[in-house]
Amino acid sequence: MRYETPGTIDSAVALLAQEKGRAYLLAGGTDLLVRLRGGYIEPDLVVDVKRIDSMRKITAEGGGFRIGAAVPAAELGEHPGVKKLWPGVVEAVELIGSKQVQGRATMVGNLCNASPAADSVPAMVAAGAIASIVGPQGKRNVPVEEISTSPGKTTLAKGEIVESILLAARPAHSGDAYLRFIPRTEMDIAVVGAGVSITLDDKGVCKTARVALGAVAERVLLVGPAADALIGSKLDEAALDKLAAAASAACRPIDDKRGTKEFRIKVAGVLARRAALIALERARKS
């Protein structure tokens, strides 16, 4: 196995593109190293991107923030600007593993592992986050919801790297939130996750909304009908009932030891409703 530590994104792309064997990126390593030591994978090449300057920074951009792919969850959780602008995203990232794990784990690693139950992904999707991808053919920007296709599979081509995530600026009276259900009180995999982001007008009416669900399908879902249920309302009981029904209707989960299909479908509606109310409270205060 070769271990490389390139200093530029172009060098990292070249290493991945030229490798004929199995190549893996190392950012935080909290998933990769566990799989490596457990014998689940046998890489021919590991490319450590932590020395690439652009991937280790949180930078202000256009009223929002660009999060480098190697920024650890703990650092993101301590950033006052990101916490104020997108509290739901930060809360979701802070649910990745333990406090020790968060010192190394990254939001982009959580995304690119392509787990349907990844905590940060529904929150990013609800936030309309954009992934900046660099590859042999140049750069491209895609919505986060277009990265994963199924468990462990992404739309990234050979040699492509997610360099950063853009969390954009947002108008006044905006709020977001993320909630999950787990069997234990912490350090568990989501049975269901729900992210909601809304913006209100000056009269308190919802004018834009995004709703995303995790662990209820082969990938994180952006649920348009659930968002439509909120738009034009003040998030009254009728709108929240429609939101919950739409969220549950969008689910296509599996049965496993953590929950049945019926349970996940029910909980998805409950969590979406609760997350919407938290987002509403935050929007009213912003």
Element-level helix/strand string:
EHEHEEEHHHHHHEEEEEEEEEHHH
Largest sheet: 5 strands, antiparallel
Terminal Cα span: 51 Å
Helix content: 25-40%
Low-confidence stretches: none
Shape call? globular
The total strand number stands at 14
Structural class per helix/strand content? alpha+beta
Number of helices: 11
Alpha-carbon Rg, integer:
19 Å
Provide the spatial order of strands within the biggest beta sheet.
4-5-10-6-7
Question: What's the rounded overall pLDDT mean?
Answer: 96
What does the model show?
- The protein has about 290 residues and is α+β, with helices and mostly antiparallel strands.
- About 35% of the residues lie in helices and about 25% in strands.
- The chain has eleven helices and 14 strands.
- It has helices spanning about 10-20, 30-35, 75, 80-85, 85-95, 100, 105-110, 120-125, 225-230, 235-250, 260-285, and strands at about 1-5, 25, 45-50, 60, 65-70, 130-135, 140-145, 150, 155, 160-165, 175-180, 190-200, 205-215, 220.
- The chain has a five-stranded antiparallel β-sheet with strand order 4-5-10-6-7. The chain has a four-stranded antiparallel β-sheet with strand order 11-12-13-14, with helices on both faces.
- A hairpin with a 2-residue loop joins strand 6 and strand 7 (about 140-145).
- Helix 9 packs antiparallel against helix 10 (about 235-250) and helix 10 (about 235-250) packs across helix 11 (about 260-285).
- The longest helix is centred in the last third of the chain and has 25 residues, at about 260-285.
- The model has no long low-confidence stretch (mean pLDDT about 95).
